[in-house]
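Incident log, support desk, overnight shift.

02:14 A customer reports that sequence design results differ from what the structure should imply. Their input is reproduced verbatim below. On-call engineer (initials T.W.) acknowledged and began investigating.
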């Protein structure tokens, strides 16, 4: 049902984009919008990981990194991927004070995960594992492609609506339904509708990724602690500059990078953090991690001083 819901919502986004083209340019505009939507989806499919990683300046790291904190991060992701039965993803770090993380890629064989320098400095070893297990759950559930395509279409709808507002009003012919009033209504309502669909997709995916991620890591409470710490820090004012420039990508992160405030309502990209924490605690997953192998630094150690502190 979750996959069916996502398919329907994505179809709704595409229909909204095509409908916006019709309102601006009539049948010709609708055809152009349809062709453009297909092209965007194909481009996003093949380049999903590259688009987001380049946008946030992600730097790939490996087990040979000179910093122990990074080596531990890499070793844990490789271990978690093996536990989840996934191909090992590209592992990257983004230079941002705000603690956060995301995953991207068109399928498990072409996935990439990213954690911010702020996250690696703030959280302890088990909490980082919990966060990255959540991101690998998105990969396992094949959410990464869906969420990247959603961001692409939502951003394009906003751009198209703005184009119609600034350039569509100059034309007053019979080919454009609604005339100037219709164009203004489109510019206001289309981005809102796209935002609502985008948020609905994100919220339904986050709960499932929390559940699967807790199973992968073997410790739902570590992820719960991490979520509380990340949100508290974000509320303190740490700004993710690139996320502010590209708000259509906000739903890719584990916690809303724009404000750090979640709520289960129409205007939130993420479920309320306290609801996610309660759901994780109800899972009753044992805190003891079972079958852990290949760690570079002993787990459960006190907070380390990283290279960005």
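02:41 Re-run completed on a clean worker. Output:
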């Amino acid at each position: 049902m979750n996959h069916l819901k996502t398919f329907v919502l994505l179809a709704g986004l595409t229909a909204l984009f095509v409908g916006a083209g019709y309102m601006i340019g009539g049948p010709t505009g609708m055809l152009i919008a349809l062709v453009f939507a297909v092209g965007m989806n194909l481009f996003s499919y093949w380049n999903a990981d590259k688009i987001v990683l380049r946008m946030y300046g992600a730097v790939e790291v490996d087990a040979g990194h000179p910093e122990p904190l990074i080596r531990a991060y890499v070793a844990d992701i490789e271990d978690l991927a093996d536990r989840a039965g996934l191909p090992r993803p590209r592992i990257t770090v983004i230079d941002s004070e705000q603690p956060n993380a995301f995953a991207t890629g068109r399928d498990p064989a072409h996935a990439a995960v990213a954690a911010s320098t702020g996250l690696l400095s703030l959280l302890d070893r088990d909490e980082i594992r919990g966060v990255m297990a959540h991101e690998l759950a998105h990969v396992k559930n094949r959410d990464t492609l869906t969420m990247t395509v959603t961001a692409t279409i939502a951003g394009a709808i906003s751009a198209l609506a703005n184009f119609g507002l600034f350039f569509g009003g100059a034309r007053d012919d019979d080919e454009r339904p609604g005339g100037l009033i219709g164009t203004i209504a489109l510019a206001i309502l289309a981005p809102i509708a796209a935002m609502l669909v985008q948020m609905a997709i994100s919220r339904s995916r986050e709960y499932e990724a929390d559940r699967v991620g807790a199973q992968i890591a073997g410790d739902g409470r570590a992820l719960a602690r991490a979520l509380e710490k990340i949100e508290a820090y974000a509320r303190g004012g740490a700004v993710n500059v690139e996320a502010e420039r590209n708000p259509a990508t906000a739903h890719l992160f584990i916690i809303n990078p724009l404000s750090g405030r979640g709520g289960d309502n129409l205007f939130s990209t993420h479920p309320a953090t306290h609801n996610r924490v309660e759901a994780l605690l109800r899972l009753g997953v044992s805190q003891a991690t079972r079958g852990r192998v290949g760690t570079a630094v002993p787990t459960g150690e006190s907070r380390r001083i990283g290279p960005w502190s």
